[in-house]
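Schema walkthrough. Field components (list of strings):
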Amino acid sequence: MSVAKILIVGASVGGVRTAQALRADGFAGRIVLVDAECELPYDKPPLSKGLLLGMTDSEKIRLLTEETASELDLELRLGVEVVGLDAEAKQVTLAGGVAETYDGLVIATGVAASWGPWGGLQGQGVHVVRTLAGAAELRTELAAGGPVVVIGSGFIGAEVAASARALDLETHLIDLVSTPMSRSFDPEVGEFFARLHADRGVITHFGVGVDEVSGARGDLTLRLTDGSALKAAVVVVGIGARPATDWLDGSGLRLEDGVVCDEHLRAVGVDDVYAVGDVCRWTDAGTGELVRAEHWTNAVDQALCVARNIMRPEEPTSYRAVEYVWTDQYDWKIQIVGRHETAVVRQILGDPNSGRFVVLYGGEGGVLTGAAVANWPKALVTTRKAMAAGRLLAEVVDKLDGGAAPEAARVGVRA
Amino acid sequence: MAKLTADFGACQGYANCVVAADDVYDIDDDGIVVLLKEHIEESDRARVEEAARSCPVNALQVVDG
Ligand SMILES: Cc1cc2nc3c(=O)[nH]c(=O)nc-3n(C[C@H](O)[C@H](O)[C@H](O)COP(=O)(O)OP(=O)(O)OC[C@H]3O[C@@H](n4cnc5c(N)ncnc54)[C@H](O)[C@@H]3O)c2cc1C
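Field assembly_structure (string):
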């Protein structure tokens, strides 16, 4: 292969896995990995769970060490922010003004957590959870005691609330929506998880917003839209994240909620630029829609696809993967496969109250379109395989249930 | 030949390995990985290593021997 130097901006899971896949694929040129953070590359999922609980530590979650990087001959440039791209000249600008050239560029800059209007309280006991340093700081503050108020009940907010309860702290979870993780679960399943959090002692405030956060470290006050006020020692903001593309402004890349890519994960409008992971908004090969995902497995799958396409640009592979995300809360292992929004039929197997169930979603014609799985490993494997193979919901039911279950119900019609 | 190893204590049952290589990896009813083979041919190593790298908790290794 003629490409001599691949530059990867962002050395988190998307960037690191791309580098590893390139080497596994026999790429013999230079691979330079640049990241703004000074830390050796690390994995993010434990930041809101095991790391806060002290069940893992920073050394156990490294994606690369000095040794593994040098074994693969990866040039790691840590603590170096990239501030600009000149796609015509095939070079990026590093903070300080130095240019770094490339033959192929991989954009893996992920997303940055949103602070909402509360960025000014950073360092005053108000946190987002996105970096190892930030999570370590949060862990120290949690050790000093609660109450903990979590704003936003998406995955990260719900996980932090579960972790805070595991640490036996008074914990509040606030969200404008009526159920947690509402983008991923249908309302009934969301309702179930709202009850799970309440049962575990989280004081939930759904359908309520936050008007104001004031005060200082250790003595924060939140004013809620229902007129009530809460005291907090620690506030965690989990209201979403924004693609980290500021450094690409004016580069000629199409930026619309991420780096817009074709189905081969090549940035549209420029040559030899790819995007992977949370920052990548790719064209779905089936529907032509632009999609972006903030899930670990998506970053890893895209890394493989990009490495392949760099090695074999003449016969590029389309990115096709079944969406998959897990979340671990309390002693619950919850996974989501595919999507529920487009479903016309829906069926529950198992019993939510027994702690083990799967909700299956099907489209017109009965094809499985998604599943929400809780504490049921076999159902997870079965639904992931069935989604990849385009199987029918009924086939999954047969496999898991031996055909004993009643037929799937139309969505919106409750038995 | 290459040898497969797993850290059964670390495994969280996320099932990425099974999706990537179900001739080599499975998970049991408790959600712990099952190695369906002890050894694989060198020629299969790249594919299985790719599956091992898809493990979110780094519980899978492919080693010489
Ligand atoms: C707390 C938390 C818990 C999570 N839990 C789960 C989970 O349970 N399951 C799941 O499936 N997913 C989970 N995720 C999501 C998963 O971690 C992400 O999908 C994954 O990290 C995306 O990887 P990435 O490489 O695309 O981007 P990121 O991990 O966001 O990394 C981007 C990197 O780019 C660097 N960077 C950004 N801008 C620049 C620049 N201008 N110059 C140089 N470097 C730059 C950053 O420093 C960073 O290291 C979680 C995420 C978080 C934050």
